[in-house]
Known about the structure:
By secondary structure, the protein is of the alpha+beta class. Among the domains are: 1-33; 36-65, no CATH class. The chain is 23% helix and 17% strand. It is built from three helices and three strands. Strand 1 (2-7) and strand 2 (10-14) form a beta hairpin. The radius of gyration is 15 Å and the shape is elongated.
Amino acid sequence: MDVYWLSDAGAERQDVAALPSLLVREDGFVWVDIPECDEAASRVLADVFGFHPLAIKHCRERTHAEGACLPRSSPDDCPWPSAGGGRSRRPAGT
């Protein structure tokens, strides 16, 4: 699991333990990349984000259609250029 703080300064990698303090900040936002929903990721989803147990179960049991391939996202894919992304896809009025 990878945690990033995204702000005007760019993307900064953070420790998972920093999530509670990062989530109350108002000068950016948190990006959590969970490529595999293991036990540690499940605990974070439940304890930090308050996910329902069934939602976590579905994350752990997710399946993809055969032949379907989605590119892995990263903070560099963020639509806000100031947060590390290179593409300007910011919604109008934000």
